[in-house]
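=== RUN LOG ===
request id: a7f3
mode: sequence -> structure
chains: 1
length: 439
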Amino acid sequence: MKIRIRKKLCCALLLATAAAAEGFARGPVTPNDFAGSDTRRIRLAVEAAKGTTNSVTIPRLNANGSTVWMIDSAILLPSGMTVILDNCTLQLSDSCRDNMFRSDNVGIGIADPAWNENIAIIGVGSAVLKGAANPRATGDGLRNLSLNPAPNHNKDRSSYGTDAGRIGRKQKSDWRNFMILMAYVKGFELKNVRIEYAHTWAVTCERVHHAEISNIRLYTPQYRYVGGERKHTFNNDGIDLREGCKYFRIDDITSVNGDDCIALSALDMGPEYHTNGNVDSFQVTSTRHSGPEDDIEHVYITNVKTNYTGVALRASDNASIHHVYIDGVITAADPTVTPPYAGSPYVILVGNRAYGKPSEKHRIHDIYVMNVIGDGLRLIDVKSPVADCVFMNAVYTGDKAPAAVTYREGIREQCVNIQEINLVKAPSGGGKTLNANRK
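=== RESULT ===
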Protein backbone atom coordinates (compact mmCIF):
# COMPACT_ATOMS: atom_id res chain seq x y z
CA MET A 1 0.00 0.00 0.00
CA LYS A 2 2.78 2.44 0.95
CA ILE A 3 4.62 1.68 -2.32
CA ARG A 4 1.47 2.44 -4.35
CA ILE A 5 0.97 5.76 -2.55
CA ARG A 6 4.59 6.70 -3.12
CA LYS A 7 4.26 5.86 -6.83
CA LYS A 8 1.12 8.00 -7.14
CA LEU A 9 2.79 10.91 -5.37
CA CYS A 10 5.83 10.62 -7.62
CA CYS A 11 3.65 10.57 -10.75
CA ALA A 12 1.70 13.60 -9.56
CA LEU A 13 4.92 15.45 -8.80
CA LEU A 14 6.36 14.60 -12.22
CA LEU A 15 3.19 15.76 -13.98
CA ALA A 16 3.16 19.04 -12.02
CA THR A 17 6.83 19.61 -12.77
CA ALA A 18 6.29 18.89 -16.47
CA ALA A 19 3.34 21.28 -16.61
CA ALA A 20 5.35 24.01 -14.89
CA ALA A 21 8.28 23.44 -17.23
CA GLU A 22 6.00 23.59 -20.26
CA GLY A 23 4.48 26.87 -19.05
CA PHE A 24 7.92 28.32 -18.39
CA ALA A 25 9.20 27.22 -21.78
CA ARG A 26 6.16 28.66 -23.51
CA GLY A 27 6.67 32.05 -21.92
CA PRO A 28 4.00 34.71 -21.56
CA VAL A 29 0.86 34.75 -23.68
CA THR A 30 1.18 37.51 -26.28
CA PRO A 31 -0.97 38.57 -29.24
CA ASN A 32 1.95 37.64 -31.50
CA ASP A 33 0.95 34.01 -30.84
CA PHE A 34 -2.22 34.49 -32.91
CA ALA A 35 -3.38 35.52 -36.38
CA GLY A 36 -5.72 38.28 -37.51
CA SER A 37 -6.07 41.99 -36.86
CA ASP A 38 -4.32 43.55 -33.88
CA THR A 39 -7.60 43.73 -31.98
CA ARG A 40 -8.50 40.12 -32.74
CA ARG A 41 -5.06 38.86 -31.70
CA ILE A 42 -5.16 40.73 -28.38
CA ARG A 43 -8.65 39.40 -27.70
CA LEU A 44 -7.53 35.85 -28.51
CA ALA A 45 -4.56 36.27 -26.18
CA VAL A 46 -6.88 37.38 -23.36
CA GLU A 47 -9.12 34.38 -24.00
CA ALA A 48 -6.15 31.99 -24.03
CA ALA A 49 -4.79 33.43 -20.78
CA LYS A 50 -8.14 33.34 -19.02
CA GLY A 51 -8.01 30.65 -16.36
CA THR A 52 -4.42 29.65 -17.25
CA THR A 53 -1.69 32.27 -16.93
CA ASN A 54 -4.29 35.04 -16.34
CA SER A 55 -1.74 37.40 -17.85
CA VAL A 56 -1.19 38.81 -21.34
CA THR A 57 1.97 40.64 -22.37
CA ILE A 58 1.73 43.07 -25.28
CA PRO A 59 5.29 43.61 -26.55
CA ARG A 60 6.77 46.59 -28.34
CA LEU A 61 7.21 44.73 -31.63
CA ASN A 62 4.08 43.66 -33.46
CA ALA A 63 4.48 40.49 -35.55
CA ASN A 64 3.17 42.44 -38.56
CA GLY A 65 6.32 44.57 -38.45
CA SER A 66 4.75 47.61 -36.81
CA THR A 67 5.54 49.14 -33.44
CA VAL A 68 1.95 50.31 -32.95
CA TRP A 69 -0.98 48.08 -32.05
CA MET A 70 -4.15 49.45 -33.68
CA ILE A 71 -7.37 48.94 -31.73
CA ASP A 72 -10.68 48.78 -33.65
CA SER A 73 -12.95 47.90 -30.71
CA ALA A 74 -12.66 47.49 -26.96
CA ILE A 75 -10.38 44.89 -25.39
CA LEU A 76 -12.68 43.27 -22.83
CA LEU A 77 -11.00 42.21 -19.59
CA PRO A 78 -12.42 39.42 -17.39
CA SER A 79 -11.86 38.84 -13.69
CA GLY A 80 -8.34 37.91 -12.69
CA MET A 81 -6.73 39.32 -15.84
CA THR A 82 -3.46 41.28 -15.91
CA VAL A 83 -2.34 43.05 -19.07
CA ILE A 84 1.36 43.89 -19.22
CA LEU A 85 2.14 46.75 -21.61
CA ASP A 86 5.81 46.02 -22.31
CA ASN A 87 7.30 49.18 -23.85
CA CYS A 88 4.44 49.15 -26.36
CA THR A 89 2.14 51.69 -28.00
CA LEU A 90 -1.57 51.02 -28.49
CA GLN A 91 -3.66 53.41 -30.57
CA LEU A 92 -7.35 53.59 -31.36
CA SER A 93 -7.90 53.33 -35.10
CA ASP A 94 -9.80 55.97 -37.05
CA SER A 95 -12.61 53.42 -37.50
CA CYS A 96 -12.93 52.74 -33.77
CA ARG A 97 -15.82 54.14 -31.77
CA ASP A 98 -15.25 52.30 -28.55
CA ASN A 99 -13.12 52.17 -25.42
CA MET A 100 -9.60 50.82 -25.61
CA PHE A 101 -10.00 48.67 -22.47
CA ARG A 102 -13.25 47.82 -20.68
CA SER A 103 -14.19 45.33 -18.00
CA ASP A 104 -16.10 42.56 -19.78
CA ASN A 105 -19.09 42.68 -17.44
CA VAL A 106 -20.51 45.93 -18.86
CA GLY A 107 -21.49 47.18 -22.29
CA ILE A 108 -24.38 48.05 -24.55
CA GLY A 109 -27.55 46.30 -23.39
CA ILE A 110 -26.02 44.65 -20.30
CA ALA A 111 -28.81 45.57 -17.89
CA ASP A 112 -27.70 43.62 -14.82
CA PRO A 113 -23.89 43.48 -14.68
CA ALA A 114 -22.19 41.04 -12.34
CA TRP A 115 -19.14 42.03 -10.33
CA ASN A 116 -15.66 41.41 -11.72
CA GLU A 117 -12.56 41.07 -9.56
CA ASN A 118 -8.83 41.76 -9.78
CA ILE A 119 -8.10 43.42 -13.10
CA ALA A 120 -4.73 45.07 -13.73
CA ILE A 121 -3.16 47.09 -16.55
CA ILE A 122 0.55 47.53 -15.87
CA GLY A 123 3.02 49.44 -18.01
CA VAL A 124 6.67 48.38 -18.21
CA GLY A 125 9.14 50.96 -19.49
CA SER A 126 7.45 53.29 -21.98
CA ALA A 127 3.81 52.21 -22.29
CA VAL A 128 1.63 54.57 -24.33
CA LEU A 129 -2.11 54.56 -25.04
CA LYS A 130 -3.19 56.96 -27.79
CA GLY A 131 -6.45 58.20 -29.20
CA ALA A 132 -7.20 58.01 -32.90
CA ALA A 133 -5.40 60.29 -35.34
CA ASN A 134 -8.80 61.36 -36.68
CA PRO A 135 -11.47 60.19 -34.21
CA ARG A 136 -15.06 59.40 -35.10
CA ALA A 137 -16.31 60.96 -31.85
CA THR A 138 -14.99 62.97 -28.93
CA GLY A 139 -16.61 64.47 -25.85
CA ASP A 140 -18.79 62.92 -23.17
CA GLY A 141 -22.41 61.80 -23.52
CA LEU A 142 -23.82 65.30 -23.60
CA ARG A 143 -21.91 66.55 -26.65
CA ASN A 144 -23.09 66.86 -30.24
CA LEU A 145 -20.62 65.85 -32.93
CA SER A 146 -19.32 68.49 -35.30
CA LEU A 147 -16.62 68.68 -37.95
CA ASN A 148 -15.77 72.22 -36.86
CA PRO A 149 -16.79 72.85 -33.24
CA ALA A 150 -16.17 76.30 -31.87
CA PRO A 151 -13.76 76.69 -28.95
CA ASN A 152 -14.81 77.06 -25.33
CA HIS A 153 -18.49 77.74 -24.62
CA ASN A 154 -19.95 76.84 -28.02
CA LYS A 155 -23.71 77.21 -28.06
CA ASP A 156 -24.47 73.80 -29.54
CA ARG A 157 -22.30 71.95 -27.01
CA SER A 158 -20.37 70.29 -29.80
CA SER A 159 -17.13 68.32 -29.97
CA TYR A 160 -15.13 67.07 -32.94
CA GLY A 161 -15.87 63.77 -34.66
CA THR A 162 -15.86 62.46 -38.22
CA ASP A 163 -19.24 60.78 -37.65
CA ALA A 164 -20.79 64.26 -37.61
CA GLY A 165 -23.50 64.57 -40.26
CA ARG A 166 -23.14 60.97 -41.45
CA ILE A 167 -26.42 59.14 -42.02
CA GLY A 168 -26.86 56.16 -39.75
CA ARG A 169 -24.17 57.31 -37.33
CA LYS A 170 -24.97 58.38 -33.78
CA GLN A 171 -24.64 62.15 -33.53
CA LYS A 172 -24.03 62.39 -29.80
CA SER A 173 -21.02 61.19 -27.88
CA ASP A 174 -21.29 58.61 -25.10
CA TRP A 175 -19.29 56.45 -22.66
CA ARG A 176 -17.55 54.57 -25.48
CA ASN A 177 -15.23 57.56 -25.80
CA PHE A 178 -13.47 56.77 -22.50
CA MET A 179 -10.02 55.28 -23.05
CA ILE A 180 -10.21 52.93 -20.05
CA LEU A 181 -13.58 52.05 -18.50
CA MET A 182 -13.95 49.83 -15.43
CA ALA A 183 -17.32 49.21 -13.76
CA TYR A 184 -18.45 46.88 -10.99
CA VAL A 185 -14.89 45.75 -10.33
CA LYS A 186 -13.47 44.78 -6.94
CA GLY A 187 -9.72 45.20 -7.19
CA PHE A 188 -8.24 47.28 -10.03
CA GLU A 189 -4.70 48.43 -10.75
CA LEU A 190 -3.46 50.86 -13.39
CA LYS A 191 0.23 51.72 -13.23
CA ASN A 192 3.00 53.33 -15.26
CA VAL A 193 1.08 54.36 -18.37
CA ARG A 194 1.10 57.45 -20.57
CA ILE A 195 -2.24 58.39 -22.16
CA GLU A 196 -2.38 60.80 -25.09
CA TYR A 197 -5.38 62.44 -26.74
CA ALA A 198 -8.12 60.39 -25.14
CA HIS A 199 -11.44 61.04 -26.86
CA THR A 200 -12.89 62.32 -23.59
CA TRP A 201 -12.19 61.12 -20.01
CA ALA A 202 -8.97 59.10 -20.09
CA VAL A 203 -9.73 56.73 -17.19
CA THR A 204 -13.21 56.18 -15.79
CA CYS A 205 -14.33 54.01 -12.89
CA GLU A 206 -17.95 53.33 -11.98
CA ARG A 207 -18.74 51.38 -8.82
CA VAL A 208 -15.16 50.18 -8.46
CA HIS A 209 -13.76 49.16 -5.05
CA HIS A 210 -10.17 48.85 -3.87
CA ALA A 211 -8.22 50.41 -6.72
CA GLU A 212 -4.72 51.77 -7.16
CA ILE A 213 -3.90 54.20 -9.96
CA SER A 214 -0.32 55.43 -9.98
CA ASN A 215 2.49 56.82 -12.11
CA ILE A 216 0.19 58.07 -14.86
CA ARG A 217 1.16 60.68 -17.45
CA LEU A 218 -1.70 62.37 -19.28
CA TYR A 219 -1.65 64.58 -22.35
CA THR A 220 -5.26 65.40 -23.14
CA PRO A 221 -5.63 69.09 -24.05
CA GLN A 222 -8.97 70.44 -25.23
CA TYR A 223 -7.92 70.25 -28.86
CA ARG A 224 -5.92 68.15 -31.30
CA TYR A 225 -4.53 68.64 -34.77
CA VAL A 226 -6.03 66.76 -37.71
CA GLY A 227 -4.28 67.30 -41.03
CA GLY A 228 -2.56 70.33 -39.55
CA GLU A 229 -5.86 71.93 -38.51
CA ARG A 230 -6.81 72.45 -34.87
CA LYS A 231 -10.01 70.64 -33.89
CA HIS A 232 -11.65 71.37 -30.56
CA THR A 233 -12.64 68.54 -28.26
CA PHE A 234 -14.35 68.75 -24.90
CA ASN A 235 -14.59 67.14 -21.49
CA ASN A 236 -10.96 66.05 -21.54
CA ASP A 237 -10.82 64.88 -17.93
CA GLY A 238 -7.93 62.74 -16.76
CA ILE A 239 -9.24 60.32 -14.11
CA ASP A 240 -12.92 60.12 -13.17
CA LEU A 241 -14.49 58.28 -10.24
CA ARG A 242 -18.25 58.02 -10.52
CA GLU A 243 -21.00 56.58 -8.29
CA GLY A 244 -20.02 53.90 -5.81
CA CYS A 245 -16.23 54.19 -6.07
CA LYS A 246 -14.58 53.32 -2.76
CA TYR A 247 -11.12 52.73 -1.31
CA PHE A 248 -8.96 54.30 -4.01
CA ARG A 249 -5.30 55.25 -3.95
CA ILE A 250 -4.35 57.73 -6.69
CA ASP A 251 -0.70 58.80 -6.71
CA ASP A 252 1.91 60.41 -8.94
CA ILE A 253 -0.20 61.96 -11.69
CA THR A 254 1.31 64.44 -14.14
CA SER A 255 -1.22 65.88 -16.53
CA VAL A 256 -1.98 68.28 -19.31
CA ASN A 257 -5.77 68.20 -19.33
CA GLY A 258 -8.58 70.18 -20.91
CA ASP A 259 -10.94 69.65 -17.99
CA ASP A 260 -10.58 68.21 -14.48
CA CYS A 261 -7.37 66.29 -13.90
CA ILE A 262 -9.22 64.16 -11.33
CA ALA A 263 -12.99 64.27 -10.80
CA LEU A 264 -15.08 62.56 -8.14
CA SER A 265 -18.66 62.79 -9.35
CA ALA A 266 -21.82 61.37 -7.80
CA LEU A 267 -24.30 63.05 -10.12
CA ASP A 268 -27.83 61.88 -10.81
CA MET A 269 -28.81 63.52 -14.08
CA GLY A 270 -32.35 62.14 -14.19
CA PRO A 271 -34.34 58.97 -14.92
CA GLU A 272 -33.25 58.82 -18.56
CA TYR A 273 -29.84 57.75 -17.24
CA HIS A 274 -31.06 55.20 -14.67
CA THR A 275 -30.45 52.05 -16.72
CA ASN A 276 -27.26 50.07 -17.17
CA GLY A 277 -25.84 49.56 -20.65
CA ASN A 278 -27.51 52.66 -22.09
CA VAL A 279 -25.49 53.84 -25.09
CA ASP A 280 -27.18 57.24 -24.88
CA SER A 281 -25.73 57.90 -21.43
CA PHE A 282 -22.45 59.39 -20.28
CA GLN A 283 -21.99 56.33 -18.02
CA VAL A 284 -22.19 52.63 -18.80
CA THR A 285 -23.93 52.04 -15.44
CA SER A 286 -26.90 53.83 -13.91
CA THR A 287 -26.45 57.31 -12.46
CA ARG A 288 -29.18 56.62 -9.89
CA HIS A 289 -28.04 57.10 -6.29
CA SER A 290 -29.63 54.20 -4.42
CA GLY A 291 -28.04 54.74 -1.02
CA PRO A 292 -24.71 54.47 0.81
CA GLU A 293 -23.52 51.77 -1.60
CA ASP A 294 -23.36 54.50 -4.25
CA ASP A 295 -21.44 57.00 -2.10
CA ILE A 296 -17.90 57.89 -3.14
CA GLU A 297 -15.69 57.38 -0.10
CA HIS A 298 -12.21 56.72 1.22
CA VAL A 299 -10.22 58.14 -1.67
CA TYR A 300 -6.55 59.08 -1.18
CA ILE A 301 -5.03 61.43 -3.77
CA THR A 302 -1.36 62.43 -3.62
CA ASN A 303 1.32 64.03 -5.79
CA VAL A 304 -0.61 65.63 -8.65
CA LYS A 305 0.78 68.17 -11.13
CA THR A 306 -1.49 69.70 -13.76
CA ASN A 307 -1.72 72.68 -16.10
CA TYR A 308 -5.42 73.23 -15.42
CA THR A 309 -8.05 72.23 -12.87
CA GLY A 310 -6.80 69.78 -10.26
CA VAL A 311 -9.34 67.79 -8.22
CA ALA A 312 -13.11 68.31 -8.35
CA LEU A 313 -15.68 66.80 -5.95
CA ARG A 314 -19.28 67.06 -7.16
CA ALA A 315 -22.40 65.46 -5.72
CA SER A 316 -26.04 66.07 -6.54
CA ASP A 317 -29.17 65.85 -4.40
CA ASN A 318 -28.67 63.33 -1.54
CA ALA A 319 -25.59 61.63 -2.97
CA SER A 320 -22.60 61.71 -0.66
CA ILE A 321 -18.85 62.10 -1.08
CA HIS A 322 -16.88 61.68 2.12
CA HIS A 323 -13.52 60.80 3.61
CA VAL A 324 -11.41 62.12 0.77
CA TYR A 325 -7.77 62.91 1.51
CA ILE A 326 -5.89 65.19 -0.90
CA ASP A 327 -2.21 65.87 -0.28
CA GLY A 328 0.01 67.59 -2.81
CA VAL A 329 -1.68 69.18 -5.85
CA ILE A 330 0.02 71.81 -8.00
CA THR A 331 -1.64 73.71 -10.82
CA ALA A 332 0.52 75.91 -13.04
CA ALA A 333 -0.34 77.09 -16.53
CA ASP A 334 1.74 75.52 -19.29
CA PRO A 335 2.80 78.24 -21.78
CA THR A 336 3.00 75.66 -24.59
CA VAL A 337 -0.64 74.60 -24.17
CA THR A 338 -3.61 76.87 -24.87
CA PRO A 339 -5.75 76.78 -21.70
CA PRO A 340 -9.50 76.29 -22.02
CA TYR A 341 -11.75 79.23 -21.34
CA ALA A 342 -10.01 81.94 -19.26
CA GLY A 343 -7.55 79.63 -17.53
CA SER A 344 -7.99 77.33 -14.56
CA PRO A 345 -11.15 78.18 -12.56
CA TYR A 346 -9.89 76.31 -9.48
CA VAL A 347 -7.29 73.88 -8.20
CA ILE A 348 -9.68 72.14 -5.79
CA LEU A 349 -13.47 72.24 -6.24
CA VAL A 350 -15.80 71.09 -3.47
CA GLY A 351 -19.48 71.13 -4.35
CA ASN A 352 -21.88 71.26 -7.27
CA ARG A 353 -24.33 73.76 -8.71
CA ALA A 354 -24.35 72.83 -12.38
CA TYR A 355 -25.32 69.15 -12.67
CA GLY A 356 -28.64 67.72 -11.50
CA LYS A 357 -30.11 69.01 -8.25
CA PRO A 358 -27.80 70.95 -5.91
CA SER A 359 -26.05 68.92 -3.24
CA GLU A 360 -27.96 68.70 0.03
CA LYS A 361 -26.37 70.19 3.14
CA HIS A 362 -23.40 68.31 4.52
CA ARG A 363 -23.70 65.36 2.14
CA ILE A 364 -20.13 66.25 1.21
CA HIS A 365 -18.14 65.85 4.41
CA ASP A 366 -14.80 64.81 5.88
CA ILE A 367 -12.74 66.30 3.08
CA TYR A 368 -9.09 66.93 3.99
CA VAL A 369 -7.02 69.09 1.64
CA MET A 370 -3.38 69.98 2.30
CA ASN A 371 -0.26 71.13 0.50
CA VAL A 372 -1.96 72.73 -2.50
CA ILE A 373 -0.42 75.39 -4.76
CA GLY A 374 -1.98 77.00 -7.78
CA ASP A 375 -2.82 79.97 -9.93
CA GLY A 376 -6.03 80.61 -11.88
CA LEU A 377 -9.29 82.15 -10.77
CA ARG A 378 -9.47 80.37 -7.40
CA LEU A 379 -7.42 77.95 -5.36
CA ILE A 380 -10.01 76.10 -3.25
CA ASP A 381 -13.57 76.76 -4.41
CA VAL A 382 -16.44 75.67 -2.13
CA LYS A 383 -19.81 75.61 -3.90
CA SER A 384 -21.95 73.49 -1.56
CA PRO A 385 -22.61 73.45 2.20
CA VAL A 386 -20.01 70.99 3.51
CA ALA A 387 -19.15 69.65 6.95
CA ASP A 388 -16.09 68.47 8.88
CA CYS A 389 -13.46 69.63 6.42
CA VAL A 390 -9.87 70.79 6.83
CA PHE A 391 -8.03 73.04 4.36
CA MET A 392 -4.39 73.34 5.38
CA ASN A 393 -1.06 74.53 3.96
CA ALA A 394 -2.25 76.10 0.71
CA VAL A 395 -0.62 78.80 -1.43
CA TYR A 396 -2.67 80.76 -3.95
CA THR A 397 -0.38 82.33 -6.55
CA GLY A 398 -3.15 83.95 -8.58
CA ASP A 399 -4.66 87.40 -8.12
CA LYS A 400 -8.33 86.93 -9.02
CA ALA A 401 -9.73 85.58 -5.73
CA PRO A 402 -9.57 87.43 -2.40
CA ALA A 403 -8.26 84.44 -0.44
CA ALA A 404 -6.92 80.92 -0.79
CA VAL A 405 -10.35 79.48 0.04
CA THR A 406 -13.46 81.05 -1.44
CA TYR A 407 -17.08 80.23 -0.68
CA ARG A 408 -19.87 80.99 -3.09
CA GLU A 409 -22.57 83.39 -1.96
CA GLY A 410 -24.40 82.21 1.16
CA ILE A 411 -22.44 78.95 1.42
CA ARG A 412 -19.98 79.73 4.24
CA GLU A 413 -22.76 80.29 6.77
CA GLN A 414 -24.23 76.83 6.04
CA CYS A 415 -20.96 74.94 6.45
CA VAL A 416 -20.20 73.16 9.73
CA ASN A 417 -16.85 72.54 11.42
CA ILE A 418 -14.51 73.90 8.78
CA GLN A 419 -10.86 74.44 9.70
CA GLU A 420 -8.58 76.67 7.63
CA ILE A 421 -4.92 76.48 8.63
CA ASN A 422 -1.90 78.24 7.17
CA LEU A 423 -3.44 79.54 3.96
CA VAL A 424 -1.39 81.98 1.90
CA LYS A 425 -2.17 84.28 -1.00
CA ALA A 426 1.07 85.15 -2.76
CA PRO A 427 0.54 86.61 -6.24
CA SER A 428 3.57 87.84 -8.18
CA GLY A 429 6.03 86.73 -5.51
CA GLY A 430 4.47 88.63 -2.62
CA GLY A 431 2.31 87.11 0.04
CA LYS A 432 0.67 87.21 3.38
CA THR A 433 -0.90 84.60 5.63
CA LEU A 434 -4.68 84.58 5.58
CA ASN A 435 -7.30 83.09 7.86
CA ALA A 436 -4.75 81.20 9.96
CA ASN A 437 -6.37 78.67 12.28
CA ARG A 438 -9.84 80.03 11.59
CA LYS A 439 -12.68 77.68 12.51
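=== NOTES ===
The CA atoms of residues 96 and 305 lie 31 Å apart.
Residues 87-98+108-434 form a domain with the Pectate Lyase C-like fold (CATH 2.160.20).
=== END ===
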